[in-house]
């Protein structure tokens, strides 16, 4: 029986590969420069509006209607949302989503038609300029290795939800490096139970392929789909069971064929 071998790459193939890598390196550097500049200008404008209006509502809607669409378009992302029309967005909810990439934040800002806040890692709060903006907008920071800080975060989240906010949590705790979803941690779900609000599962597909979770701003054009599920009631459910329900709902949406 003869064996068929794949043809070896030619000199022209190798040269084309080197040229392609060089093109993407330069293009991604320009995209990063634009992202940093556009974001910095947007933060300045948002903080000025906040100082005038004394309310984060308009700056948060700017993130949804201006910042997110611009950065998604700049990344070459083909973007779509499913299920948003079936949700009553007048009610406060805790959104829980899988986490593949930093561009998930853009995708969620654009998908949710009401002001949206996030629970963020404490390291983000120490980033100059960005941390000040996030605090001013009412984001919540979590110290993962501190029980006392975790209790404080839980109280802050409950207060926000009871005050009518829509808040997003990534219950995996970190970005997925291989695209597989990690188990949802139950801690954040306790806040939804204590506040008496529904949990809204959301699946984000394709974000990790557009902006890789590792490396320095490796961006490639691709499709990002945000699928919004059905609200999960929290009355009479313990946090671990709620976390499992939410994870199952997100997993089911990720498995759904387009």
State the order of secondary-structure elements, H for helix, E for strand.
HHEEHEHHEHEHEHEH
Largest sheet: 7 strands, mixed
Low-confidence stretches: 1-6
Please bin the fraction of helical residues: 40-55%
- Number of contiguous helices: 9
CATH architecture: 3-Layer(aba) Sandwich
Look at the structure and name the CATH superfamily: Glycerol-3-phosphate (1)-acyltransferase
Global Rg? 20 Å
CATH topology: Glycerol-3-phosphate (1)-acyltransferase
CATH class: Alpha Beta
As for the number of domains, it is 1
Q: Which range does the strand content fall in?
A: 15-25%
Overall shape: globular
Beta strand count? 7
**Lateral arrangement of strands in the main beta sheet:** 1-7-6-2-5-3-4
Q: Mean pLDDT, rounded to whole units?
A: 88
| Straight-line distance between termini | 42 Å
The helix/strand class is alpha/beta
Give a quick set of tags describing it:
258 residues, alpha/beta, 7-stranded mixed beta sheet, disordered N terminus
If you had to describe this structure to a student in words, what would you say it looks like?
- There is one protein chain.
- It is built from 9 helices and 7 strands.
- With 258 residues, it is of the alpha/beta class.
- The chain has a single domain (11-255), classed as Glycerol-3-phosphate (1)-acyltransferase, CATH 3.40.1130.
- The longest helix is centred in the first third of the chain and has 43 residues, at 11-53.
- The chain starts with 10 loop residues before the first helix and ends with a helix.
- The model is unreliable at 1-6 (pLDDT under 50).
């Amino acid at each position: 029986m003869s064996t068929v071998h794949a043809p070896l790459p030619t000199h022209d193939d190798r040269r084309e590969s080197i040229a392609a890598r060089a093109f993407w390196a330069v293009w991604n550097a320009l995209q990063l420069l634009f992202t940093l500049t556009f974001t910095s200008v947007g933060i300045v404008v948002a903080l000025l509006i906040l100082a005038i209006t004394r309310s984060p509502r308009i700056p948060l809607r700017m993130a949804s209607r201006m910042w997110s669409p611009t950065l998604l378009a700049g990344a070459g992302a083909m973007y779509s949302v499913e299920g948003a029309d079936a949700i009553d967005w007048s009610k406060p909810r805790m959104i829980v989503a899988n986490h593949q990439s930093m561009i998930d934040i853009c995708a969620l800002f654009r998908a949710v038609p009401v002001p949206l806040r996030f629970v963020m890692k404490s390291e983000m709060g120490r980033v100059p300029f960005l941390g000040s903006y996030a605090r001013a907008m009412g984001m919540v920071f979590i110290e993962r290795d501190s029980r006392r800080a975790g209790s404080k975060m839980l109280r802050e989240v409950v207060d926000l939800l009871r005050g009518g906010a829509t808040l997003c949590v990534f219950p995996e705790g970190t970005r997925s490096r291989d695209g597989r979803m990690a188990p949802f941690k139950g801690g954040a779900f306790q806040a939804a139970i204590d506040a008496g609000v529904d949990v809204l599962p959301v699946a984000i597909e394709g974000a990790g392929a557009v902006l890789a979770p590792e490396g320095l701003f490796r961006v490639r054009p691709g499709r990002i789909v945000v699928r919004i599920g059905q609200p999960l009631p929290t009355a009479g459910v313990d946090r671990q069971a709620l976390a499992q329900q939410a994870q199952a709902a997100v997993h089911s949406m990720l498995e759904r064929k387009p």
